[in-house]
Amino acid sequence: MVQIEVISGVERRRRWSDEQKRAIVAAAFAPGAVVTEVARRADINTGLLYRWRRELCAAPAGFAEVMVSSAVVDPVDRGMVEVRSDGGQARLPLSTPPELAAAVVRALVRR
């Protein structure tokens, strides 16, 4: 049997908060997740998910690829974090305040 959905009246455009978008994108792109299934559960198109991901990645507080290495090249490097970007690199001590570290990362990304 064929199922038909009848929509009467004016359908309103839904509004998604930034928190909702982040949660849906995180669920869709988590290891082992299937984007189409997450989109179906949220009742949205997969294209919208990809657009949200692109927007979140472009935002300064978006996603960033991180590589963690346990290798210490120089004993002086202990307690240091090295941040590399196409815009350059910076070495920060672990005692750097989070606000300052975020500002340094933003400056490197904008270069």
Report what the structure shows.
The protein has a two-stranded antiparallel sheet. It is of the alpha+beta class and 111 residues long. Helices cover 41% and strands 11% of the residues. The protein is elongated, with a radius of gyration of 21 Å. A hairpin with a 2-residue loop joins β1 and β2. It is built from 4 helices and 2 strands; from the N terminus they run αααββα. The model has no long low-confidence stretch (mean pLDDT 80). α1 crosses α3.
Write a brief structural summary:
This protein is 41% helix and 11% strand. By secondary structure, it is of the alpha+beta class. The chain has a two-stranded antiparallel ribbon with strand order 1-2.
Write a concise keyword list for the protein shown above.
two-stranded antiparallel sheet, alpha+beta, 11% strand, 111 residues, elongated, single chain, 41% helix, 2 strands
Topology:
Layout: H1 18-28, H2 35-42, H3 46-58, E1 80-85, E2 88-93, H4 98-110
